[in-house]
Specification:
The structure is a single chain. By secondary structure, this protein is an alpha+beta fold. The protein has a single domain, classed as 2-Layer Sandwich (Alpha-Beta Plaits). The protein has a 5-stranded antiparallel sheet with strand order 1-5-2-4-3. Strand 3 and strand 4 form a beta hairpin. The two termini are about 25 Å apart.
């Protein structure tokens, strides 16, 4: 079962986003976030930041359009997802991080915990 949350705009200092993280953390679910990065006008700086992003296993780059770079962040938990968001926001070539989509799902159960009835 999926619990979908859509956040299109963030308050100053990401207050709304942080509220959602706290709420999701209590549910202990696995987040998948669609983010839109606004890159700096300095192409060299933006390119260096994109290279850093591409080295991470939990972030997938989409097709870039001008200064806008869509990314998908898929992590094991909300703490890791929050840390990835903060890491992206702190990159020198990233001007802004917008949350476009957030989805959370329950972690998959171990195969050994499922009983098969005959």
């Amino acid at each position: 079962m999926f619990n979908h949350k859509r956040i299109f705009f963030l308050d100053k200092g990401r207050r709304l986003f942080l509220y959602q993280w706290r709420r999701i953390t209590r549910l202990e679910e696995m987040p998948v976030n669609g983010l839109l990065l606004t890159l700096t006008e300095d192409e060299e700086l933006a390119g260096e930041s994109l290279l850093e992003i591409s080295r991470r296993d939990d972030i997938e780059l989409g097709d870039r359009t001008d200064r806008w770079q869509p990314v998908v962040v898929e992590t094991e938990g909300t703490r890791e997802s929050h840390e990835a968001h903060e890491w992206l926001a702190d990159l020198p070539g990233v001007q802004m991080v917008d949350v476009v989509f957030t989805s959370v799902s329950r972690p998959p159960q171990e195969a050994s915990s499922k009983k098969v009835l005959k």
